[in-house]
Design goal:
Blueprint lengths: L11 E3 L5 E3 L3 H21 L4 H21 L4 H11 L3 H17 L7 E2 L4 H24 L6 H24 L5 E2 L1
Antiparallel strand pairs: 1-2, 3-4
InterPro entries: CblAdoTrfase-like, CblAdoTrfase-like_sf, PduO-typ
Keywords: ATP-binding, Cobalamin biosynthesis, Coiled coil, Cytoplasm, Nucleotide-binding, Transferase
Subcellular location: Cytoplasm
Length: about 180
């Protein structure tokens, strides 16, 4: 199979499960941002590997692949199927919350805003957090026109909180201080 198909040369792309839309369609914007978030997390994982942080990120990357497939699926029955495969449910949200709580237990309480930066690992996690927020905004925008499972927005919202906390933990574990605003 060749990587290029020439099918998108006219500015349209095929959706998972059928149909075509323009490459600037809100659905494509949403799953494109989720894909960018996934790549950002891959970059963050590759910098100064920290096993306990990276172990949290690998399942998140798998979740993001499933969310991307769900967002690229116009058929509601196939979307439900993707959601069940994705395991984006209350239990998964609770797992993210437990990871956030574990980070909080390791850190001093926040007393002011943190300026993103620090170590390369933490900076990459902060970038991923902002990409996550953009993906969340795109999904909310898409959900205004297309019925989507509410759990997708909840997941992305919780994930951005987790990425913020992981960035703080990465700085702490590396001995880097935080710059406050």
């Amino acid at each position: 199979m060749k990587i290029y198909t020439r099918a998108g040369d006219e500015g349209a792309t095929a959706l998972f499960g059928g149909g075509k839309v323009g490459k600037d369609h809100p659905r494509v914007e949403a799953y494109g941002d989720v894909d960018e978030l996934n790549a950002s997390l891959g970059l963050a994982r590759s910098i100064d590997m920290m096993p306990r942080i990276d172990e949290v990120l690998v399942p998140v990357q798998r979740d993001l692949f499933a969310i991307g497939a769900l967002l690229a699926t116009p058929d509601h029955e196939k979307m439900k199927e993707q959601l069940s495969k994705a395991r984006i449910d209350e239990q998964r949200i609770e797992e993210l919350e437990r990871a956030i709580d574990a980070c909080e237990a390791e850190l001093e309480p926040l007393r002011s805003f943190i300026i993103p930066g620090g170590t390369p690992k933490a900076a990459a996690l902060h970038v991923a957090r902002t990409v996550c927020r953009r993906a969340e905004r795109r999904v909310v925008h898409l959900a205004a026109d297309i019925e989507l499972p509410a759990m997708v927005v909840v997941y992305l919202n919780r994930l951005s909180d987790l990425l913020f906390m992981l960035a703080r933990v990465a700085n702490k574990r590396a001995g880097a201080g935080e710059v406050t605003w």
